């Protein structure tokens, strides 16, 4: 469980990117989110961001010296991740302030900047792991997986929050279903590549298939897919129970997948 802080940090940071971009997009399209509901969602995203930062420091040998990690920005993807993620949270805070002040024009600009910085932060995070020493990580799959987590969890989180607040019944399934299909395709290609790769990559695939978490992840992924399909087919299923259940099982699925990402890595 040594890598649990990294599991929590990476999943939450990616959820945060997807959630903020989804909220900002709804704001731009004039969906009509009330001031109080928007403020609660934004503050919850900021709280998740703060939690992710605190948890990430638990992985460091000397958490109090975490600030030193930003000193190698020019050569280290870890430093870039820290700087860009911190900036991303800062812009979400600024966006929240202008939501409170009801300044749509400034929110529009800040939303663009925050979204771009957030994408760079997640890209930097993925690049940390794309190293030749671990064949299972050293591919575009790592990049795809990180951004798919953002796409799967973030918008669904916002939709569930809106449903809890009994506001707009956003048809999030129109986004979630293509994202789920893309995630399934990426997974099939990934494991096919591993099985055809170096011995260490083959070993990672075998370790993954032999772990009970992999099969629990498959079941939870399929359950979330079924719930999203229901909401797509019938508007009556676009409610707090369906969206909350789908988010919960999909969050579990992504956390299990990220745990396996670390747990089954085999070095050259």
Strand content range: under 5%
- Rounded radius of gyration (Å): 19 Å
What form results from the Cα inertia axes? globular
* Helix content class: over 70%
- Sheet with the most strands, sense and barrel status: none
The arrangement of helices and strands along the chain is HHHHHHHHH
The chain-level mean pLDDT equals 90
Distance between the termini: 22 Å
Q: What structural class do the secondary elements suggest?
A: mainly alpha
What ranges have pLDDT less than 50 throughout 5 or more consecutive residues? none
Tally of contiguous helical segments = 9
**How many β-strand stretches?**
0
Report on the structure:
The chain is mainly alpha-helical and 268 residues long. 76% of the residues lie in helices and 0% in strands. It has nine helices and no strands. α2 packs antiparallel against α3 and α5 packs antiparallel against α6. The longest helix is centred in the middle third of the chain and has 26 residues. The relative contact order is 0.13.
Task: Throw out a few tags for this protein.
9 helices, 268 residues, single chain, mainly alpha, 76% helix
What layout of secondary structure does this protein have?
Layout lengths: L3 H25 L6 H23 L19 H24 L3 H26 L10 H25 L8 H23 L3 H11 L2 H22 L6 H24 L5
Helix pairs in contact: 1-2, 1-4, 1-5, 1-9, 2-3, 3-4, 4-5, 5-6, 5-9, 6-7, 6-8, 8-9
Task: Write a compact overview of the structure shown.
Helices cover 76% and strands 0% of the residues.
């Amino acid at each position: 469980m040594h890598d649990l802080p990294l599991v929590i940090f990476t999943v939450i940071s990616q959820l945060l990117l997807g959630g903020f971009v989804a909220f900002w997009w709804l704001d731009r399209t004039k969906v009509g989110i009330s001031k109080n509901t928007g403020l609660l969602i934004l503050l919850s995203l900021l709280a998740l961001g703060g939690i992710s930062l605190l948890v990430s420091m638990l992985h460091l040998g000397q958490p109090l010296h975490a600030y030193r990690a930003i000193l190698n920005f020019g050569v280290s993807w870890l430093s870039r991740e820290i700087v860009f993620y911190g900036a991303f949270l800062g812009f979400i805070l600024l966006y929240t302030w202008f939501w409170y002040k009801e300044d749509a024009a400034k929110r529009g600009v800040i939303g663009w900047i925050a979204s771009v910085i957030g994408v760079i932060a997640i890209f930097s995070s993925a690049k940390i792991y794309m190293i030749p020493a671990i064949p299972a990580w050293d591919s575009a799959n790592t990049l795809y997986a990180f951004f798919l987590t953002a796409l799967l969890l973030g918008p669904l989180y916002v939709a569930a929050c809106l449903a809890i607040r009994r506001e707009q019944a956003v048809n999030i399934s129109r986004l979630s279903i293509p994202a789920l299909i893309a995630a399934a395709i990426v997974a099939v290609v990934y494991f096919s590549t591993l099985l055809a790769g170096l011995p260490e990559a083959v070993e990672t695939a075998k370790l993954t298939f032999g772990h009970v978490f992999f099969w629990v992840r498959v079941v939870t992924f399929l359950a979330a897919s079924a719930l999203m399909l229901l909401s797509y087919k019938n508007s009556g299923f676009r409610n707090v129970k369906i969206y909350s259940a789908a988010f919960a099982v999909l969050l579990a699925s992504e956390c299990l997948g990220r745990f396996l990402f670390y747990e089954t890595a085999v070095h050259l």
